[in-house]
Amino acid sequence: MSNIDSHKLYIKNLSFINNIKTIAIIGPSKKRDYFFLKNHATYFKGPIYAVHPTVEEIPNFEKKNIFHSVSEIPGEVDYAFIAVPAFKILNIIDECVEKKVKLVTVFTSEFSDSGTEEGTILEKELLRRAQNKVRILGPNGMGLFYPKLGIAWRPEFPTTPGNIGFIAQSGGVCNIAIYGASALGINFSKVFSFGNGADLDFVDLLYFLSNDPETDIILCYIEGIKEGRINDLKEVLKQNKKPIIALKGGQSKTGSKAVKTHTASISGDDRLWKALFKQFNIIEVESLEQLLNTARLIDFYRIFELKNLAVFSISGGYGVILVDLLEKENIKVPSFTPEIQNLLSSKLYLPGTSSNNPLDLAAQFFFENTVYEIIDIALTDKKIDGLILDMPSFYLKPVFKSMDRQSFESNIIESLCLGHKHNKPLIPIIQRSNRPEERERISKKLIERRVPVFGDPLEVIPLLPKISNYKKRYIY
Amino acid sequence: MSNIDSHKLYIKNLSFINNIKTIAIIGPSKKRDYFFLKNHATYFKGPIYAVHPTVEEIPNFEKKNIFHSVSEIPGEVDYAFIAVPAFKILNIIDECVEKKVKLVTVFTSEFSDSGTEEGTILEKELLRRAQNKVRILGPNGMGLFYPKLGIAWRPEFPTTPGNIGFIAQSGGVCNIAIYGASALGINFSKVFSFGNGADLDFVDLLYFLSNDPETDIILCYIEGIKEGRINDLKEVLKQNKKPIIALKGGQSKTGSKAVKTHTASISGDDRLWKALFKQFNIIEVESLEQLLNTARLIDFYRIFELKNLAVFSISGGYGVILVDLLEKENIKVPSFTPEIQNLLSSKLYLPGTSSNNPLDLAAQFFFENTVYEIIDIALTDKKIDGLILDMPSFYLKPVFKSMDRQSFESNIIESLCLGHKHNKPLIPIIQRSNRPEERERISKKLIERRVPVFGDPLEVIPLLPKISNYKKRYIY
What we know:
The structure is a homodimer.
Chain A: E1 2-3, E2 10-11, E3 23-26, H1 35-43, E4 48-51, E5 66-67, E6 79-82, H2 89-99, E7 103-106, H3 117-130, E8 135-137, E9 143-145, E10 164-168, H4 171-184, E11 188-193, H5 202-210, E12 217-222, H6 230-239, E13 244-248, H7 253-263, H8 270-279, E14 283-285, H9 288-301, E15 309-313, H10 316-328, H11 338-347, E16 359-360, H12 370-380, E17 386-390, H13 405-416, H14 418-422, E18 426-429, H15 436-448, H16 457-460, H17 464-473
Parallel strand pairs in A: 3-4, 3-6, 4-5, 6-7, 7-8, 10-11, 10-12, 12-13, 13-14, 15-16, 15-17, 17-18
Antiparallel strand pairs in A: 1-2, 9-11
């Protein structure tokens, strides 16, 4: 441990992570098709070694990179992923200390998470034998996902490096987040699954991401921290200048019990966490989906404050529903300023349309350029901070023969990108109705243009005041 | 109007709707590719006539079925869809009365919805000229969707008749519901879009569906009703024995203003509606998506009461999140009974798994039959009323070579159908992550087996207590 500053902040140094050059996979399993070895080897560019006492050959893996022990590996090993039976772990960690491995992930479970005395003793002994010389993610963790360096523990993890960091104990939650994020169009700088947190814990990893030049937004799923770390956590949060979005697991009675089984964490008093989130302006969400979607909104549109929103609907009724949901969250849907209102009135000429806010386009949606012009004008209004719009996926197919599918679709896409032109968030809800292929194709194109597509108003509207409140409270 | 019973309930008789045999489309538009004519003609089996003063030919439409006026049509006309400019509407309605048309939809807008005095006067005159002899859906409505008879106002409306009725003023909301329902695997008996409700209103249509033998569940999107109809509404609700799920539009200040622009409705005091919903055990929801998903849960699993739920997760952390969300909604995740717990313990042998509730399968998910056996045992527990489970879509691809994709997938599907075997709701959440095609394919198969797949816990968990409360309060 090193004393980082005058606040007596105890944080383990992890700055070497951005320079990992060699990897060893300890305990590759033939029975599991060498799962973790194959996954790490897929994208990692530097040398990668397999360590197993008896294995001599591994399909599609160079024989010269297979060793019977860590000490046999020539040169340095920066990072090791360990998946051996629990009873072998102490010898392996001794070897890693000897080899001066900087960081290991202990995937093996049944330590303190088992709830047995033996497991807890073994975990303590593991930590003691590491001697603060090798840093540990785990045990019972998946370790490090670092797309920039090609470090990935599961197949088909996205390869695009991003600016979002994620910390969770649970590897399963990390998996869902990593695959989910790639579908949403956001990318991670680093993801840490630190399991039982015997050595590296939430506070260490948060400090690292808070100071990591590759990370702009920090996400975390928190099961709990040790009581002795609360003051360190507060100090890290005090120094932090990046948006942190947090999901706290174990808030309910049964949830808190389950947390104990899961990672042997003490989830702690919920009021304490709520107070901490408030004090340090942490955005709290209720689900993993909300965690990712809040990050996406911030990543695509930066931090925004939405007081007054324009609503753009193709169905007057759906517009009313959106207004109700927005006003429940204290977001106003005000009248446009007179000049803007006049301009909009001149553009909306079809019977059944309405140029007031909420805008009702009705069938004029299908008329060339209408959508683009109306959105462009509405976003010009100084009073208006952004626009939300619903576009059922059945509208994505032109209904009149006279319409050209190509220009119709590209026109919709250009229209939905107008938020970026005006530097105001534009949030499209494309309902998941009867055209999954069209929806998928158009959503992908929009996501590439950094427009966050949602499928249900309740997926996004509750997130908007969370981001506004963050901005209001931000004091740097 | 007819006095139906001793409570002086004034309801317009609509029983003829189930026997519509002929249709006329009045005012087919060449400019719009004869949109409404083509749509109604696609699936309707009986005679369908086009009425236009000058049109002589319509592509792909029999010339002998084109007439210059309603009176020229030989034989009876049961239903007419009218899309003519507003200034022509009075003559057309006179003709319809003369012809003894039973029901018309007036699609034309700019009546009371325009907010002008002229519009309001025209609407009153339309009603007067109908003389209670022809019933009107509209003006400013899309009318009737009745898949059993093939009556449909838009292209590609689903053709499977169902048992769910839906009433809304807004045609756009109906469109979203109809296309959305088909993607969710539920089907409509009838959908009514009654626009401004000049003649047929919410009370009439609710009474009809409440007594319609083809309808088991009633959905409604309500913008408002006339003050004079409140007592009739109460009487209809008093007599009703079917589950009603309602979304009230215009609850907010701006929403209520928008409702007035949209269909000239007075949305009324929100507290009055809340009291009504409570008094008559109406399930209230917040969004159109919740409306459809609540109907789906009831349609697939009937009305259920969920006090104690089993949680089945592949990630311990995600299981914790589910437990927290459930307990917030007062659904308990209790321990299993000792016998069941013993059985489960004997089946879950891999390190990192947990046989307590919430169940954590971890990688044992990939072992043949594990999923089926565990769910089967958990649902046998008498204490347990149902099961919720998360299955990220990346797990839908087997990861080990030794696994057979076919049997893996069919095994998952059989496992997720186990709710029906035990007559307890089983609710799978298949996250929308990186495998949209696999997810789509498996979801479709599950929906065919009447298993409601969701993509996000917040999409479904808030709906569960709504259904439980309905069952608790149901008094028949």
